[in-house]
């Protein structure tokens, strides 16, 4: 059974035709050329395919592509704004918080979701909330530190920008 | 996956009609069903996507003081609803102890009730399994028994129910609202899941096409909010099914237990309510002795189908510990390691 | 071929570039944006998808396949079975040398393990191919399989690991035991384990006549090319393998696996590009695993706590049809001094896929048992476990008497112990509790891994524009080859990193050797170093022979290369830039090749090992048995460190593998069917973030003038060793329960 799906991916309207049994992950990777989301298990056990679906972090391997109808999908490819990396991407890069890199897109998408919900997580919270992303290499330590440091950076940037605003300045 | 028709009904009535034929299955969060479809352990000919049915994603107050939770409320949303977590802390803790952030975001309340067993032989189409293929036998018997039941099992099936969420629901007398072609009915949680008996393939009371539309928590359930915990013993600190788990809730009056609730997870084909233990605790002063006796009572009928007898003693200890934690009081917020033995217990030495 | 451009934001180049600097990853930008292209990310025009059908029985024959049903499924293009697979020029069961492993390429209807490919379905979509494979509905004639270590007849293999003797006897163990004041015997078991890289094996294969191009992850491209050339009867030069990024390997992508070749065969059969990506479950069979082991250790010690005898016997398994024998006992060769040491191996044959090198093969399970036994001996002697280890410190390699090329283990012990606070450890078990009443235990383990070298070649070019190019077919499986080798390359040609184009990850470059055995940086780095030295020498010849050059006649004094200039060694004020030298010589560039290989003479004279000490703290729930590692400190000495950031990641990774080995991972085999019943990542537990504390590593400085010109040992595997034992010993210290079966699960601690 063929399904036509109209959706929004990384802010752009997208229409595709797929089979009912194709997952969102397969369509992203095989039809739309968005291969940043990885298939590590196809059963929701590793988090390498993490994407945002209507603002919630999910495993795209357990979502049928047909379910994306009318939804907003955000993938790793949409995380940077043009050449400007998201602070998490920049931190992972600066801190070399990655190894083979297969789990990295999933970790970044998941970490972004975490910080959006909880901008000031404790280390234990980061470790617990990123438990759905496996890294076999295994780079957990640097990843956790990178997320905590990004949270701290973003917080101090927020405070600075709030301060500047109160002083009648515009932040860049 | 076997090819299937995909339909997205607009109303509950349409959904129920669309799922009336054998071979049709409802799709909501998909976290369990798609997994089983990929392995071939499930092969529905039609998927009825109910995830957008209107009105089923709400949490509503009931006139009698109870709470009604729509079947499409996502596990994460329910757990993060601060009012809900305050009133039903053990349920919130159980929800947050399950699976991963990704899966909690996708999984629904209704779907969680309908989770299939994680028995490896059930998930493997090459194995005999009475639950998946009635009459084929049970290859789990004689296999590694770590995940197998110690209560309520028989030769036909030794599977366990994997849900965390359902354990405190069983303890707190939840009610399941079901819609079918004949209309709406309500089923006590205790009666919703079935033990294997001679028909292990019939896991719940649902008939073909019936749809779980909501879950109700009765007014009385909130009375336990000050002393309610969920404890989950597992092989990873997170993202692992329970080896054994327990939900415990106490209503204390004048230094005595006015009412106790206890249910176990990971030990049977259904969330296992422990009425004997509850009866034993009622009216007694709380403490290690009472909790130990209650735990003994809860596991009195337990027996091991394989070399998993350790689960019987582990379940006793888990039950006693959960009661101890409940007595120590519900923490102000769900611990950062929900339901973990490693979550700190402020001011209490529970491992003495 | 798509250009692999390791784009750098200028800010990331601010560190400069040479050996020893903690540069970030050159491949980092591609990886954090999702732009790094792994094998399965390639979707060439006209691509078809292939899915393998695998056997559900472990021993027998396929008697029926419903090819018609599969072919009838919409989208299915072809079904490949033993009946129609392309002819092969080479026999996949031939074994010309121990590093060629027998492959299952549909050569017959025979089934030799569960998970063996028995057919392959090619379709327009992945979904159609997947369903087609299901529709084959194979039927079998099966026999009861041999599944566990007690199921087969024991024998002594001719060799273990990559060709080591199965038995080594030094001194008289029985006499040593007889004379001992304390003697212990203990048996430890480790389960089958699977590599489980996060990226399942994938191949995208395309034939153009008798030329083959494939994208596939490989830890050894040149060897893979030779194997393919032999199997398909084409010259190796006709084969291009692109493997810029591996999504983890850990040994299971070291040698070409059967399914990767099946993808190539399918592409030939259908005459179109084919992608074959294994599912997670399909990694449990045809791509290798770590054999289960049962290890019996017998130790004797004198009244002073000095070993009088050490015997390490390992029983392990190989497949029924091929040879790989986990050399676990050899972990006892070089670590503790003892006048008598015997390391012995026996094997059984099981109906499983052939075991394979897996991160720290031999050392990982061997160290787990040895470090546990040494702890048990320390306890028997009433000694602190660290003190016991120091009393048995090997000043020379105990089995040969050779000196170590370098060994800073004593400092690893000291610095690790200090950081950990080891001196406050009470001797008696079950004597520490935290503020919540959880049992607390501290344990130590010694880490050791041999400093190996394979062979590699590199090419270096210096151009008239003052820049350079260094080429080597090296493999980045996450360890950081793109970064660390580029650092070596920059120093080798005397240029800033920005001026050197570093090309890697493809088989049309000089043979970078094997990314395995913790030897890749040492081997590929040595090749780069020598290629760089050779090209600089050529440039120097040009300058020194040219009387217009300030370096004219430097002759015996020689020159050094730095920042794109050659300087007279005896007068560094006299120098000339590369560009000027080439300009005047009228040359566009000079090039040279160099090789890296072990120095056989040095290898004869010295024992070469990296060392370390790992200290672990665990907490255990006294009633429920659940265990959590709460502190982990590792101090390692592994020669010269090229990039401390990459190295720390390797140590962390190894240590977490140690946690996994000690507490989590195991394949649960069905004794009747021979199938692993947890062939996924839900049931096969590897640690998640929440299982771990913040780790600490200490890089202990060590200069080694003998291992190779750069003084590099290896860092990729040593972290597992020591850690497993440290955790097991900490669990004992916490609980008083000695669990001799890995992983240590909570049921064994319930008491």
TrEMBL record, chain A:
Entry keyword set: 2Fe-2S, Iron, Iron-sulfur, Metal-binding, Oxidoreductase
Domain 2Fe-2S ferredoxin-type: 3-79
Coiled-coil intervals: none
Taxonomic superkingdom: Bacteria
GO MF, one annotated term: oxidoreductase activity
Signal peptide: none
Pfam families attached to this UniProt entry: Fer2, Fer2_2
SUPFAM superfamilies associated with the record: 2Fe-2S ferredoxin-like, CO dehydrogenase ISP C-domain like
InterPro entries: 2Fe-2S-bd, 2Fe-2S-bd_dom_sf, 2Fe-2S_ferredoxin-like_sf, 2Fe-2S_ferredoxin-type, 2Fe2S_fd_BS, Beta-grasp_dom_sf, Diverse_Oxidoreductases
Protein name as annotated: Carbon-monoxide dehydrogenase small subunit
Gene source species: Tistlia consotensis USBA 355
UniProtKB/TrEMBL annotation, chain B:
UniProt cross-references to InterPro entries, sorted A to Z: CO_DH_flav_C (IPR005107), CO_DH_flav_C_dom_sf (IPR036683), Diverse_Substr_Oxidored (IPR051312), FAD-bd_PCMH (IPR016166), FAD-bd_PCMH-like_sf (IPR036318), FAD-bd_PCMH_sub1 (IPR016167), FAD-bd_PCMH_sub2 (IPR016169), Mopterin_DH_FAD-bd (IPR002346)
SMART domains cross-referenced by the UniProt entry: CO_deh_flav_C
Record's keyword terms, sorted: FAD, Flavoprotein
Domain FAD-binding PCMH-type: from-to ranges: 1-222
Classification via PROSITE patterns: FAD_PCMH
Gene3D superfamilies reported in the protein's UniProt record: 3.30.465.10, CO dehydrogenase flavoprotein, C-terminal domain, Uridine Diphospho-n-acetylenolpyruvylglucosamine Reductase, domain 2
Taxonomic superkingdom: Bacteria
A single MF term (Gene Ontology): FAD binding
UniProt name for this protein: Xanthine dehydrogenase YagS FAD-binding subunit
Organism (species): Tistlia consotensis USBA 355
UniProtKB/TrEMBL annotation, chain C:
Residue intervals of the Aldehyde oxidase/xanthine dehydrogenase a/b hammerhead domain: 33-144
Database matches in InterPro entries: Ald_Oxase/Xan_DH_a/b (IPR000674), Ald_Oxase/Xan_DH_a/b_sf (IPR036856), Ald_Oxase/xanthine_DH-like (IPR016208), AldOxase/xan_DH_MoCoBD1 (IPR008274), AldOxase/xan_DH_MoCoBD2 (IPR046867), AldOxase/xan_DH_Mopterin-bd_sf (IPR037165)
GO molecular function: iron ion binding; oxidoreductase activity
SMART domains linked to this entry: Ald_Xan_dh_C (SM01008)
Pfam families the UniProt entry points to: Ald_Xan_dh_C, MoCoBD_1, MoCoBD_2
Protein name: Xanthine dehydrogenase, molybdenum binding subunit apoprotein
Organism per entry: Tistlia consotensis USBA 355
